[in-house]
Specification:
alpha+beta; 5-stranded antiparallel β-sheet; 449 residues; 4-stranded antiparallel β-sheet; single chain; 11 helices; Serine Threonine Protein Phosphatase 5, Tetratricopeptide repeat
Length: 449
């Protein structure tokens, strides 16, 4: 299963109490990452909700609407008690009791990232491997793969836990992928040791889609559905489905008229641990056909987490030579509201894709105009002490960039509006002739499936 998002791995054996050092692993099968370093205390927060601050960079940053769950003081107190009791039991290696307490916590905070990942680890140690897999997969799928600095260590720890579960299920490649991603976020000797113990990856043929240009789009949809079914995605793996026909398939054509270039947007969805969606683009011209994967989203359908996308496609004459090109605008994002620790995180990505077959070489190129990963924390009641954090504990950070794109006289004109999110990649801002943007050997070109 492809892993894309974040959460906190188990703080218990990995971190321990404030007054207690992290316990050393008893055996190779019980290894856990060392305690993470505590990040520097953030400074005074920006008052983003103040009407006078409506024009700050953060206020202008694009994002999906967050439906924040209403949490009562009694619920938060019960959550804190359940987690504290579960951690105490886990430190005493009573994982059956710890699992029972964390199930109580999950009932209160069913889709909080940290709660799910920690509960998943405890379930794993209690022998409930499938439930552990479900909770940890949901947790990881709720955060971007490239999170802001402040939550990279929690994601790395959760990826380590995921690898333990996958290895126990005989899913060596998934375990290898999880531990490799964990190390990329936070180098750790224990995780590296588990990865090394797996040995070299088996030599496999890369999965691909083979489309026949002589058949209709209906046949292409079936091939893409079966490809996605076999590969799996956020929220499901092939083993979760009785048949690939469990996947719902919809399609639509671009607006406008075309001359020599045809395309179709193929949208897939399936509901197992939540709703998983994928969007593919199929283009064909001059006896050739190619498919491109545009995005995947995962939405568990519960309070605090939202994920969505929009995709619009239209035919246009962009090269001014009588040919027809395809322009696709793709926006997708995710928000995760974690009530257990008063944190929100997510991402927003916007891209423009242009496809052409003007010189007989069918190809598509893409430019990302917005890439914003964000993390927010507000003062929260501490789980263990019951004390309210000081106002200085609030923080907000963004990573990424935002640019504006126009097509002027057959060229892409990209400008930096100084959004405050971050600095655009070198070479992005400026005027780019359409032929160079569509160059099959250029940096913009998309790789087909």
């Amino acid at each position: 299963m492809k892993i894309t998002c974040l959460v906190l791995a188990l703080v218990l054996a990995a971190c321990g109490d404030d007054d207690e050092p992290a316990p050393q692993p008893e055996s190779a099968s019980n290894d856990e990452p060392a305690q993470a370093e505590t990040p520097d205390e953030p400074g005074e927060p920006e008052t983003a909700d103040d009407p006078n601050e409506a024009e700050t960079a953060e206020a202008r940053a694009p994002r999906l609407e967050i439906n924040r769950p209403e949490i009562t003081a009694a619920q938060r107190a019960s959550l804190r008690q359940a987690i504290s009791a579960g951690r105490r039991a886990a430190r005493q290696s009573d994982f059956a009791e710890a699992d029972a307490r964390f199930q109580e916590a999950v009932e209160i905070d069913r889709y909080g990232s940290r709660t799910r990942c920690e509960a998943g680890y405890v379930a794993f140690r209690a022998g409930e491997v499938e439930r552990a897999r479900e909770w940890i997969d949901q947790a990881l799928a709720s955060m971007p793969a490239n999170p802001p600095e402040s939550i990279r260590v929690p994601r790395a720890m959760c990826l380590y836990n995921a690898g333990l579960v996958y290895e126990a299920q005989g899913r060596a490649e998934d375990a290898r992928r999880a531990w490799t991603q964990s190390i990329a976020l936070r180098p750790n000797a224990t995780v590296q040791g588990r990865l090394d113990a797996l040995g070299e990856a088996a030599t496999t043929t890369e999965s691909s889609v083979s489309l026949n240009a002589s058949v209709g789009f209906g046949a292409h949809r079936d091939v893409i559905r079966d490809f996605w079914c076999a590969e799996g995605s956020d929220g499901f793996s092939r083993e979760d489905l009785e048949s690939c026909s469990d996947i719902a398939v919809s399609h639509r054509s671009p607006t406008g008229t075309s001359a020599g270039l045809e395309a179709e947007i193929v949208e897939l969805s399936v509901n197992t641990l939540g709703e998983s969606q994928a969007v593919f683009l199929v283009v064909r011209a001059a006896g050739a056909v190619k498919a491109y994967r545009l995005t995947d989203t995962y939405n568990p359908g519960a309070g605090g987490i939202s994920a969505d996308y929009t995709v619009e496609a239209r035919y246009e004459n962009l090269l001014r030579g009588g040919s027809t090109e395809l322009m696709v605008q793709l926006d997708h994002g995710m928000n995760d509201e974690d009530m257990g620790v008063c944190e929100r995180s997510g991402y927003t990505i916007a891209s423009t894709i242009i496809c052409s077959a003007d010189d007989g070489d069918l190809r598509c190129s893409q430019v990302t105009t917005t890439s914003d990963s964000y993390f927010e924390h507000e003062p929260c009641e501490d789980w263990d002490t019951g004390e309210m954090e000081p106002a200085s504990a609030a923080s907000e950070e963004h990573e990424g960039y935002q640019v504006s794109l126009e097509i002027v006289d057959g060229s892409l004109v990209i400008t930096d509006p100084e959004s405050g999110i971050g600095t655009p990649p070198t070479g992005l801002v400026g005027r780019h002739a359409m032929p160079s943007f569509l160059d099959s050997n250029g940096t913009w070109v998309l790789a087909p499936l």
